[in-house]
Prior knowledge:
This protein is of the alpha+beta class.
Amino acid sequence: MKRAQVRSVAAKKSRKKRSLTLLEKDYPGGKLLEFPGMKGRKLEKIELVTSGDYHCISLSFQHKKTLHLMIDPGFTLKAHFRDWSDGEGRSIKGWPPIVSAGLRLP
Length: 106
């Protein structure tokens, strides 16, 4: 491989790693984290796993790629599907709250 090609491959790898670095933004009362590199990917499935000591939201994309969001025990998940095309966030669908396995009452 020629020297110029080697640099090109290394530069591409370097850009790829930087593009997956979390972006932190201000959010009233907390912070907002953006996961770069996800835009444009075709989402095929969303799964929520909650067991005694493992909780995860798994986003499955085309080409067998996944983003796993692992969550520490003790949470309640409230899911809402919203339309933001007009800037108002109109609710399309809401689901009942999901309580993690560690907090469920018998």
